[in-house]
């Protein structure tokens, strides 16, 4: 075991300790396999690791406590030097051009580094519209800490407080920087401030303000915004290599990461040496079935929103000695496109794909997928309300769209579809419940029976079926009837590699892996709950921007 | 290899029947379309006995992706050859099959993207 404690912080925090003990690394895999053959147990980081593994246990157990293996991620043979057709040297090599990679590259370049970006696709790729940070100058520290506390609660208290604070105390600066630079590249990006943060009410009684960057309106997205930012990065000297998926990291004898080997479309290998460091920002693994089944079995029946997210960065970092957070990763499933986003958490009657009421509708949309994991529902449900909704739901959290405003979400309405994704809108109106059921793809009989039952409960004011408060029991009685058919699909997965507060990867002993940094949705420690929370709209992109900005600067200054 | 041999026979048959006729029929598979233009199996699969799998780089030797995207820019509801996932470089094989019927890959996520894929 390495005696090199100089890299290690004196005291290991709980989060890091847990990932070191239960996470997946090549060392834990190899050691656990050895344990199964009766070999003497190894001494873990703290010397207190459980060692009671037996043959039986290894044969039958398939969990993270000793039986779990990533045998579907075997370390490939190193690509040999004679197969390399070109070698170039940079200070910083960024793998993945998205919402964290592009800011990281620009930030590194602005801090004097010579930067290369390797991108699998032919273009910069990113999703979403909103990326948020805390406006520190206009917030009380007690409020910032209350926000941190709430986010830790949202993540089931399983995240790394230090990383959440890295976001909290740097995000305002980072998001403002992204807005400024992206505008220079011609991006359609604005600061919407605090007023759009509907979810933060009740978090604190003190002053709390936000920088809320918004790339839009749809179909314009952060993808377009990041493509504009990449132009600014190119002007600053960053070299982009497209259609150039990274394959392997190059390590020296000490294990330090000193470069990346990528493969072009003709199958030829190119080497990109990194004098200061490699930043991995290649996103999640939603299109890698084996990884999904292993880390988040809940995902089996949900549709994927993205393509080509095969977890390449996970594999490379893991092969280099990195530690993947234990099984039970955080996922993000929502649908802001079928109907108005600001009505997504309004507790109207909700029915599943058959037409049955299935939940207390005060459950947030971000959690709804948990009730719809089976093959038949596969994340589909519909919000149902009637002609009285504008008056009766006027005081509900969020913002109501009038029937006239809602037409942009209705594929059957001939009005021009502006500010929406036309191929994702999914809102309907009908004069009878049967007709609405058909449009929502529910069984009409089941649907009508469930609406009737719900209306009876509304009359009594007591929700005997699911316990929803009476103030939220709006009957569905007056035509026209409305339905928003939402599809919970996988936007991203947001757990990842164990890193320290400077986004440097740690190995199974808790030591820093020289030259290896991990950001964006590939970075671990920022979440920890079952689902990504929607308390701060745009937290995900805000975190990507912020950690890109910070990591780029940090690595450039090494 | 047996399968391929069978395909070769089919191809030869197809060639002898259709070589001189226009291939506008929608049910025509793309191997016939290619054969009609004079391409041989080896043009895509190579000469080696173990036939090579065909990657997109083979396709783009003849099909310029940017020109193709321009050609389909007015296709409704959207241009399938220029999108926010892959720009103009979507892997041809995601939609276009050569030895079997092609598929509308976009339609599985995007409602009302009812492309008819040759």
UniProtKB/TrEMBL annotation, chain A:
**Needed cofactors:** FAD
Keywords of the record, alphabetical order, are: FAD, Flavoprotein, Oxidoreductase
Q: State the species of origin.
A: Shewanella metallivivens
List membrane-spanning regions: none
- Indicate whether Ligase appears among the record's keywords: no
Name this polypeptide is given = FAD-binding protein
Query: Pfam families from the entry?
Result: FAD_binding_2 (PF00890)
Xref: Gene3D superfamilies: FAD/NAD(P)-binding domain, Succinate dehydrogenase/fumarate reductase flavoprotein, catalytic domain
Is Flavoprotein found in the keyword set?
yes
Q: Where is the FAD-dependent oxidoreductase 2 FAD-binding domain?
A: 91-529
UniProtKB/TrEMBL annotation, chain B:
Q: Which SUPFAM superfamilies match?
A: Multiheme cytochromes (SSF48695)
Its protein name is Cytochrome c3 family protein
Q: Which domain of life is it from?
A: Bacteria
Q: Where is the Tetrahaem cytochrome domain?
A: 33-110
Signal peptide extent:
1-24
State where the protein is found. Answer: Periplasm
Which keywords, in A-to-Z order, does the entry hold?
Electron transport, Heme, Iron, Metal-binding, Periplasm, Signal, Transport
């Amino acid at each position: 075991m390495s005696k090199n404690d100089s890299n290690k912080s004196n005291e290991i925090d709980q989060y890091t300790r847990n990932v070191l003990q239960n996470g997946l690394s090549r060392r834990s895999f190899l050691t656990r396999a050895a344990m199964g053959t009766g070999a003497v147990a190894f001494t873990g980081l703290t010397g207190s690791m459980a060692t009671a593994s037996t043959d039986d246990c290894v044969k039958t157990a398939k969990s993270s406590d000793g039986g779990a293996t990533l045998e579907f991620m075997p370390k490939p043979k190193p690509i040999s030097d004679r197969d390399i057709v070109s070698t170039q040297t940079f200070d910083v090599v960024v793998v993945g051009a998205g919402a964290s990679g592009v800011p990281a590259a620009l930030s590194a370049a602005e801090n004097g580094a010579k930067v290369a970006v390797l991108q699998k696709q032919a273009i910069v790729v990113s999703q979403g519209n909103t990326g948020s940070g805390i406006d520190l100058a206009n917030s009380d520290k007690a409020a910032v800490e209350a926000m941190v506390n709430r986010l830790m609660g949202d993540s089931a208290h399983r995240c790394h407080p230090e990383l959440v604070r890295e976001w909290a105390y740097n995000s305002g600066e980072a998001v403002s920087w992204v807005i400024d630079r992206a505008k220079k590249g011609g991006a359609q990006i604005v600061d919407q401030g605090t007023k759009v943060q509907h979810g933060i009410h009740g978090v604190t009684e003190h002053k709390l303000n936000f920088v809320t960057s918004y790339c839009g309106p749809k179909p314009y997205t952060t993808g377009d915004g990041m493509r504009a930012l990449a132009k600014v990065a190119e002007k600053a000297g960053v070299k982009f290599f497209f259609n150039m998926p990274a394959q392997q990291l190059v390590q020296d004898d000490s294990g330090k990461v000193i470069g990346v080997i990528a493969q072009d479309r003709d199958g030829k290998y190119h080497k990109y040496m990194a004098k200061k460091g490699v930043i991995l920002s290649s996103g999640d693994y939603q299109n890698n079935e084996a990884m999904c089944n292993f880390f988040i079995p809940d995902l089996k029946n949900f549709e994927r929103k993205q393509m080509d997210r095969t977890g390449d960065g996970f594999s490379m970092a893991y092969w280099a000695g990195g530690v993947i957070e234990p099984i039970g990763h955080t996922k993000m499933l929502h649908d802001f496109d079928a109907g108005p986003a600001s009505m997504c958490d309004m507790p109207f009657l909700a029915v599943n794909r058959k037409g049955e009421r299935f939940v207390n509708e005060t459950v947030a949309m971000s959690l709804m997928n948990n009730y719809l994991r089976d093959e038949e529902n596969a994340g589909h449900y519909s919000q149902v309300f009637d002609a009285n909704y504008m008056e009766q739901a006027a005081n509900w959290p969020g913002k109501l769209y009038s029937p006239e405003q809602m037409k942009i979400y209705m594929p059957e309405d001939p009005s021009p579809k502006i500010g929406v994704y036309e191929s994702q809108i999914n809102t309907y109106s009908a004069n009878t419940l049967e007709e609405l059921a058909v449009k929502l793809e529910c069984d009409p009989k089941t649907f009508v029976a469930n609406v009737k039952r719900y209306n009876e409960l509304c009359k009594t004011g007591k929700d005997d079926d699911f316990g929803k408060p009476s103030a939220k029991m709006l009957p569905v009685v007056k035509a026209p009837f409305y339905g928003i058919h939402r599809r919970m699909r996988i936007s991203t997965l947001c757990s990842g590699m164990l890193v320290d507060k400077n986004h440097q990867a740690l190995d199974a002993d808790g030591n820093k892996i020289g030259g290896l940094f991990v950001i964006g949705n590939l970075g671990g420690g920022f979440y920890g709950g079952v689902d990504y929370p929607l308390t701060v709209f745009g937290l995900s992109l805000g975190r990507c921007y912020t950690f890109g900005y910070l990591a780029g600067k940090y690595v450039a200054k090494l | 290899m047996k399968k391929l041999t069978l395909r070769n026979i089919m191809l030869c048959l197809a060639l002898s029947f259709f070589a001189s006729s226009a291939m506008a029929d929608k049910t025509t598979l793309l191997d016939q379309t290619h054969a009609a233009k004079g391409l041989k199996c080896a043009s895509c699969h190579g000469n080696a006995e173990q036939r090579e799998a065909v990657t997109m780089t083979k396709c783009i030797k003849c099909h310029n992706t940017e020109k193709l995207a321009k050609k389909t820019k007015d296709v409704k509801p959207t241009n399938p050859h220029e999108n926010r996932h892959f720009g103009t470089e979507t892997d041809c094989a995601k939609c276009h099959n050569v030895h079997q019927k092609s598929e509308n890959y976009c339609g599985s996520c995007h409602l009302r993207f009812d492309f008819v894929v040759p």
